[in-house]
Specification:
Largest sheet: 6 strands, antiparallel, barrel
Strand content: 15-25%
Distance between the termini: 57 Å
Structural class: alpha+beta
Shape: rod-shaped
Length: 347
């Protein structure tokens, strides 16, 4: 028994020394690189057609990769097209009216007004001569006084018609009033605004992809009634994707926004994806049950979002990944988009 104890004591000491050495090595390794465990996440957009009409075309299927500006769906736009055509016709009519007012009176209109003035002047002179002659005869009792008075009235009316014709000629020569031109110009702007609105509504009858992404859900089909409140597709934004991970309180001081990182996935062993820390939550929370950590789950943690480049589309929503953060790098802000720098982190 004593011999066994003598042999056991050195073995225990040797094991303790070995454990101490292994622990130190692990601490050194942990001090250089921090591992975080999380899942791939991405933002989603509910795409709806900003028009109330029946869908006639659906051009994307679930899983399709779409690009910004790509046509995805259309509704029946005949009613909106008719409204746009009517607004366009009103703009043309108002523009023609304004052009006519700006051009002023035509030479034919001026000559017509001059001729009318000359005719009224001739009639006025004839009425004046008749009035004078009858007045002289009335004094000699050769015509009645009533007839002479009537001739005087006719001559007076003729002179007034001359004044009116003269003013009409002046108006024709001067052209439209500036106030009328301003009114016509303002009306033209109003019609142009209505045309722009009608064209905008017509454009809204078509649904275009607002950003690059992948169609996750195709909610409606041709024949369904579309409204601005009813989504047609669910679009997953794939650039950039990000990892939802959690930092313990002890590691919070070692990580800063902008730190470069690498991401590993069990689906592609040995391959790493370039990434960087994009966001660290300012408030603590309890560790979610779905998160894999090496610490006690009841500890408070801080959510961190690590943006990751996914040029080949290999990372998928919900995929569990490991984030590797080198703690030797200088602390600086860096959030270079994936499409501006080659994915040097892939190996």
């Amino acid at each position: 028994m004593k011999n066994a104890l003598r042999l056991l004591i050195p073995l225990l000491a040797l094991a303790a020394v070995g454990a101490w050495i292994w622990q130190n090595q692990q601490q050194v390794s942990a001090g250089d690189t921090l591992k975080l465990y999380g899942n791939i996440d991405m933002r989603e957009v509910q795409l709806a057609i900003n028009a109330s009409d029946r869908i006639v075309t659906m051009l994307a299927q679930e899983g399709d990769q779409v690009h910004k500006g790509q046509l995805l769906a259309e509704v029946d736009g005949q009613r909106l097209q008719a409204l746009a055509d009517g607004a366009d016709a009103r703009v043309e009519a108002q523009q023609a009216l304004l052009d006519r007012m700006l051009a002023g009176s035509r030479p034919e209109d001026i000559r017509k007004a001059q001729a009318e003035l000359a005719a009224t002047e001739a009639q006025a002179m004839d009425a004046q001569r008749t009035s004078l002659r009858l007045r002289k005869l009335s004094k000699k009792d050769m015509v009645s006084r009533e007839r002479a008075d009537n001739a005087t009235t006719v001559a007076t009316a003729a002179r007034e018609r001359v004044k009116a014709a003269t003013q009409l000629l002046q108006l024709v020569v001067q052209g439209p009033r500036q106030e009328d031109i301003d009114t016509a110009r303002a009306q033209l702007k109003a019609e142009q605004a209505q045309l722009a609105l009608a064209q905008h509504n017509l454009h809204q009858a078509s649904l275009y992809a607002p950003i690059d992404g992948i169609i996750r859900n195709r909610i409606l089909e041709p024949g369904d009634m579309a409204t601005p409140q009813q989504p047609v597709y669910t679009l997953a934004i794939t650039d950039p994707m990000w990892v939802r991970a959690y930092l313990s309180e002890t590691d919070l001081g070692r990580v800063s926004s902008g730190m470069q990182a690498e991401v590993e996935s069990d689906s592609f062993p040995g391959k790493r994806y370039r990434a960087w820390v994009g966001y660290i939550s300012p408030s603590a929370e309890f560790t979610p049950q779905s998160v894999q950590t090496e610490e006690i789950r009841s500890h408070l943690v801080y959510q961190v979002r690590v943006q990751v480049c996914n040029p080949d589309g290999e990372l998928r929503l919900g995929m569990p990944v490991t984030v590797l953060l080198s703690l030797k790098q200088p602390r600086h802000e860096s959030n270079t988009p994936c499409n501006q720098v080659a994915d040097a982190g892939q190996r």
